[in-house]
Amino acid sequence: MKVLELKDVQKIYKTAAVDVHAVNGITLDFEEGEFAAIVGPSGSGKTTLLNMIGGLDRPTEGKILIDGTDLSQLKSSELIDFRLHNIGFVFQAYNLIPVLTAKENVEFIMNLQKWPKKDRSERTHELLRATGLEDQENKRPSQMSGGQQQRVAVARALASKPKFVLADEPTANLDSKSTEKLLEIMAELNAKENITFIFSTHDQRVVNKAKRIITIEDGKVTDDTRK
């Protein structure tokens, strides 16, 4: 079942000298439960594309549909609400809230969605156990390693059972052991919960784990391979 459709998506940045086509006419479909990596050299348009899929940026032209909802037709307030209930984000810089504990960071989105306290607690415990962080739940980000912080970020992204998790270079700041652990966790949760994962990455270890590899160069798809 198609859960994400991109139809001739373009992103053009206008400068005084020239128009820059960061994304140049991309058409793609994603099925529910995919584990896909978007790869390409720096400046190829990977992050721009991911940001548009996540509703953090709007395309200049074309359509992005999630379960039939055209993101370009949503008002800013509607788009914020749509992201809140449908999309989880994992960023290179973790983006955890420094004054909150691991448990509170994971619960944050569910709080915004007004989940009942019991359900929030059960889901948080389940994810902290799945990510191997049961003994870290009361620690703040500054008290955890980079790998632990990124696992908290993954747990937070998955907490509200979104349709997608979008991960922009999630392993860039991690060592090999932390990267392998993180990828194993995400692959297991992808298989268990059928949540679609889309990565933007330079990391060959992520590419090796992905089940679909989409290559972008100069804002265009040059290859799309399913393993």
Low-confidence stretches: none
Taking Cα atoms only, what radius of gyration do you get, to the nearest Å?
17 Å
Biggest sheet strand order reads 6-7-8-3-9-10
Number of strands: 10
Number of domains: 1
Proportion of residues in extended strands: 25-35%
Q: Work out the helix count.
A: 7
Largest sheet: 6 strands, mixed
Kindly identify the CATH topology.
Answer: Rossmann fold
Distance N to C terminus: 18 Å
Using the 3D structure, state the CATH architecture.
3-Layer(aba) Sandwich
Just give the CATH class: Alpha Beta
Structural class: alpha/beta
- What sort of overall outline do the alpha carbons produce when their principal axes are compared? globular
Order of helices and strands: EEEHEEHEHHHEHEHEE
Give the CATH H-level superfamily. P-loop containing nucleotide triphosphate hydrolases
Give the integer mean of the pLDDT values. Answer: 91
